Amino acid sequence: MYRKAILTLTALLAVLGLFAVTATAQNFPKVRELRMDRAIPPQGKACIECHKQESPGIFADWAMSRHAAAGITCLDCHQAEPGDQDISIDHEKYYSRGDLPMGEKQYFVPIASPVTPKDCSRCHPDEAKQYAKSKHANTIEIMWKLDPWLNKGMNSDNERKTGCYYCHGTILKMKDGKLDPDTWPNVGVGRLNMDGSLGSCTSCHTRHRFAVMEARKPETCGQCHLGPDHPQIEIYNESKHGDIYQAFKHEYNFDSAPGAWTPGVDYRAPTCASCHMSGSGNQATTHDVTERLSWETQAPLTVRPQDFKPFPSGTDWQVERDKMKDVCKQCHGQAWIDSFYGQLDKAVEEYNEVYFKPAKKMLDELYEKGNLDNTTFFDENLEVQFYELWHHEGRRARMGSAMMAPDYAWWHGFYECKHRYNHFMEEARHLLETNTKAYKYPDFPNTGGDTTRPPAIFGNQ
Fold this sequence. Notes:
Mean pLDDT: 91
Strand order of the largest sheet: 1-2
Strand content: under 5%
Number of strands: 2
Shape: globular
Structural class: mainly alpha
Oligomer: single chain
Low-confidence stretches: 1-16, 18-34
């Protein structure tokens, strides 16, 4: 009897001890382990094992992505076909070096550094098609058709590379078996890739996480849409939409599945993506940011998108406005929406008729009568004044009106349009009345950028 009691007590202590060990163990974090069990080929595993050591930041980003969860590896995006122009020659050399992890010939796969929308289209065909016809993808063409800095060579090639091309995109080229450093690295939205595709999905879905949540946040759009000429992020932050976002963004569900991000459920007030890209109401998600627009507020003279000569949209502005109104209806009543668009249309009309058209008429007269010389732009004060009237103040006025930011619509917009317009007209009339030629800046700095329109975009001209 005594012995039986001892055995029972011992067993009980053993069980309690096991519970104690288990409970204690629960307090220790488990070592995270990435298991690659989804039929990943040996070459794909080799990429992962190598980059885990050589570039742990890239590996960590990928490991936390939905791609990794779905068994999508480096090869699915970076693998090139034999004969592709952008194959990395340096990467091939790794497979003949025994001192590198997985550096063996058996793991060799041709790799291209740039991942293009054509590559992404293997899994995301609809998104790639929508993006290809957007202003984002075609922004190099638009830029060259509009911009006097490029067409007149009034800045340097490096100023363009570090500024203009960073957002608009470069035309990728190879040089001595490598990507030309004058064109790469670059993730501009309109980049022309060597496979003929336009753009870079990582402009908005940064590699190697490719998170949809990142593209839904206004800060992502604000990488390029900011500053004196198109301050959309500043305008958004001033607006009621931006104010609500800043106050409640910690409650937003940015990780909602693609196509399922719902106003009133996942977020309280829209971000840039909510209005211009995300599915809402009866509107499907789109990667064509040209959709839902009823005015081209970035153009010198505000026109309907289908009438924008540098890049006609091929859409009907009334149909697109109705799409945007449907998005607005998710949070606003019809009277509110209609009144807003009435104010926007009036702002556009006043900009066109009161400011732009009279100033453009005066500029043309000055050129016609020889008071201004149009062979080189920006070397005369009135050319700069006219440019900033539409490209700076005029854009801010229109965009501020379109996105409900009163300070940008008035103080940074129409208020400054008035001053710019008055100074422009004062000097213009003086030149005409005195039959005087405008003063030219004799030492305009750092010009000489190539004025040849890219043949890859425009053909040989």
